[in-house]
Design a protein that fits this description.
The chain is α/β, with parallel strands linked by helices and about 600 residues long. The chain folds into three domains: about 110 residues, Phosphohistidine domain (Glucose Oxidase, domain 1, 3-Layer(bba) Sandwich), CATH 3.50.30; about 110 residues, Enzyme I, Chain A, domain 2; about 325 residues, Alpha-Beta Barrel (TIM Barrel). The chain has 22 helices and 17 strands. An eight-stranded mixed beta sheet has the order 1-8-7-3-4-5-6-2. It is globular and about 80 Å long. The C terminus is likely disordered.
Length: about 600
């Protein structure tokens, strides 16, 4: 049988080789029928019974799993449990039964469709939140119809789970003992709960593979390359052997890099950097710490909107921040205020502007919606009393915005203190991700305690390219001369002001660029947890002086291609195998 290769989204890095274990997650067919007046109360009773059963099922899954290793991700089950009682779901379903005289299954389906309509379809994050609403509605409907809801069978150790999609409860059951070797789903994105859990547990995963469930059958050999988003169904013996060898090399490299966990990221000439992590959920903290993370350099708070039809409250924020602070045990946690706006909008809100990416976004959005911002700032100063919290404002374009946001922060702090609540004023920083902010970084550095460079947006806005647009993605060049000049200008401005400067974009986690970043003189690098060991290894094998010399050479070149060739040649010479991902990246010094 010929092998079939599918291209999906790289959700969790790593290579897995094993037998396919398909999970049947077909959509439930929802019947529609009209009911008589005398049937209304009976239908409403059925709804209440189905909701109660759904709550008990989620409680049962949580109870079974919460003693298991890595069960931190079960917090999402609490979100689904709360959604089962949400008035927007329950009251609207009841209204449809009473007023339109339809059966309760159909009423629930209609209500779920209405709630999903409040979430943007254009933004990946909010598309995934639509899936959470779907899971909750499907659970109720299946219970109404007397159908099975959760995964019953558990796969043999070393299996590759293949499914159309997985609910959080399915994920908890399948992943709780970490015996699954890999995961493939037809649907989903890299911000789906399944993808996040796979990354947290370091299980190789590919999502959005399209036709995996119709291509692979239970028992087939299957390869998952989570780093490249590739799935190979029925690989030839030679292909399987090659992937197995690559998997073993990868495991050996990871074991060797694990020896660096408790060693400092310090160059051979004594320059020390702090290695931080980017997170979206508290469940990612254990993985970050296991890779030697020294703090959180970017916590994306807009993910608190997951699975909600209403805005998160001050208490929601406070509990969330405090939990992460306590889990980090005194290490710094940099909370980025809402990066909302454009396509990422709260439930029920739409942006009808022609170019939302350049519209009311991030700190601009927060300043325009002071009630929403005030609740977050109150929660932040309260949580700061319980740990090392730092606050960061995104998409700042000038001094006036920083001063306005700081004024609101001071107001929130004074209000909390006046109420007799425990609070602390946190250090304040900004994300430098607009060319305007980069150009006036010297003035901005006088206003804040630290600068953090968000390279993803900075590169896009500097070069004028949307890297998701396949027609111009080739122009997205992190080593473009304009980008390098801008990065050096930001770092110099922070240093002149005596302020810390960090980088939290994807560029920070790419080993190819590490020597260049050393040359810039950054104080902190923030990245996904699994990227930390390899970047740290490069730092410990190099000198800051060599980084400065390389940067000087690069700034003398003219094109991005020339600069990249020079960087690749230098890194290939100094670190053989680094760019291919092999283990030989210099000695692990102690």
């Amino acid at each position: 049988m010929a092998s079939t290769t599918l291209q999906g989204l790289p959700a969790s890095p790593g290579i897995a080789v094993g037998r396919c274990w398909t999970v049947d997650r077909r959509k439930v067919r929802t019947p529609r029928r009209n009911i008589a007046a005398e049937e209304v109360e009976a239908e409403l009773s059925r709804l209440e019974a189905a909701i109660e059963l759904s709550v008990r099922q989620l409680d049962g899954v949580k109870a079974r799993m919460e003693t298991a290793d890595g069960a931190e991700h079960l917090a999402i089950l609490e979100v689904h449990r709360a959604m089962l009682r949400d008035p927007s779901l329950v009251d609207e379903s009841r209204r449809l039964v009473r007023e339109e005289r339809v059966n309760v299954e159909w009423a629930v389906k209609r209500t779920i469709r209405k709630i999903k309509g409040a979430f943007s379809e254009d933004d990946e994050f909010f598309r995934e939140r639509r899936s959470d609403v779907d899971y909750v509605g499907e659970r109720i409907v299946k219970n109404l119809l007397g159908q099975g809801v959760d995964v019953v069978e558990t796969p043999p150790p070393g299996s590759i789970v293949v499914a159309r999609d997985l609910s959080p409860a399915d994920t908890a059951i399948l992943f709780h003992d970490r015996k699954v070797a890999g995961l493939v789903t037809d649907a989903g994105g890299i911000t789906s709960h399944t993808a996040i859990v796979a990354r947290a547990l370091e299980i190789p995963a590919v999502v959005g593979a399209g036709k995996a469930t119709t291509t692979a059958e239970r028992g087939d050999w299957i390869v998952v390359d989570g780093g490249r988003g590739l799935v190979v169904v029925n690989p030839s013996p030679g292909e399987r052997a090659d992937y197995e060898a690559a998997r073993i090399r990868q495991m050996e490299r990871e074991a060797e890099l694990a020896r660096l966990k408790d060693l400092p990221a310090e160059t051979v000439d004594g320059v020390r950097l702090r290695m931080l992590g980017n997170i979206e959920f508290g469940e990612e903290v254990p993985g970050l710490l296991s890779h030697g993370g020294e703090g959180v350099g970017l916590y994306r708070t807009e993910f608190l909107f997951m699975g909600r039809t209403e805005l998160p409250t001050e208490e929601d924020h406070y509990r969330d921040y405090r939990n992460i602070l306590e889990a980090m045990g005194g290490r710094p946690v940099t909370v980025r205020t809402f990066d909302l706006g454009g396509d990422k909008l709260p439930s029920g809100q739409k942006d009808h502007s022609e170019n939302p990416a350049l519209g009311l976004r991030a700190v601009r959005y927060c300043l325009r919606h002071p009630d929403l911002f005030h609740a977050q700032l109150r929660a932040a100063v309260r949580a700061a009393a319980h740990g090392n919290l730092r606050l960061m404002f995104p998409m700042v374009s000038g001094v006036a915005e920083v001063r306005a946001a700081k004024w609101m922060l001071t107001e929130a702090f004074e209000e909390v203190v006046a109420q007799g609540l425990e609070a602390r004023m946190p250090p304040v920083g900004i994300m430098v991700e607009l060319p305007a902010a980069a150009v006036v970084a010297d003035r901005l550095a006088q206003e804040v305690d630290f600068l953090s460079i968000g390279t993803n947006d900075l590169i896009q806005y500097t070069i004028g390219v949307d890297r998701q647009n396949k027609d111009v993605a080739y122009l997205y060049k992190p080593l473009h001369l304009a980008v390098l000049r801008m990065l050096r200008s930001i770092a110099d401005a922070a240093r002149a002001a005596g302020k810390t400067v960090s980088m939290c974009g994807e560029m920070a986690g790419e080993p190819l660029y590490t020597l260049v970043l050393l040359g810039l003189g950054l104080d902190e690098l923030s990245m996904n947890g699994p990227s930390i060991p390899l970047v740290k290894r490069v730092i410990r094998s190099a000198s800051a002086r060599e980084g400065r010399e390389l940067l000087d050479r690069l700034l003398g070149l003219n094109t991005a291609d020339d600069i990249e060739r020079e960087v690749r040649a230098e890194m290939t010479r100094r670190f053989p195998g680094l760019l291919e991902g092999d283990a030989a990246v210099g000695p692990v010094s102690g």
